Amino acid sequence: MVTPSLLITDDDAALRETMGGLFQPRGFRILMAGDGEEALRIVEREEVHLMLLDMHMPKLTGLETLRRVKLFKSSLPCILLSARCDDFLIAQGRQAMAHLVLAKPVSRQLLTSAVDQALEGVYGWRVE
Known about the structure:
This protein is of the alpha/beta class. It has a single domain, classed as Rossmann fold. It is 45% helix and 19% strand. It is built from 5 helices and 5 strands. A 5-stranded parallel beta sheet has the order 2-1-3-4-5, with helices on both faces. Strand 4 (78-82), helix 4 (87-95) and strand 5 form a beta-alpha-beta unit. It is globular. The model has no long low-confidence stretch (mean pLDDT 95).
C-alpha cells in the first residue's frame, strides 16, 4: 500500500503539530501549511492524498483554498474544519466539494474516523 500523505493546513502552528502528532504514528506522511497559498503550492508539487483545512486563515480561507484545489485536483478529499461551523458553512463546503465539514474543537476519535472514511471512500485504503 502507498503511504498516505496528509496535508494539514492551519494558521495555528501548535494545532498543526498536534494533528501531525496524531497521524504520523499511524503511518501517514505529514505535510503542513500555515495558510491557503502555501497549501496550494504544496498540492501542486507534492503527492497529497487528503487535506485538512482550517476555515479561518490569512490570505485564503479554507473554503477559498478548497475551491482552488478542486480546479486541478477534483478528486482530492478535503476536510474543512471551523470553530464557527453552521448550516451555511456546511452548505458552502458541500457545494465546493468538501468531503466533510467538521466543527472545532474536534475530538481525536471523530477526526481520525473522518480521515479513515475519506481514504477508504476515495482510494479504498484502510489505515491500521
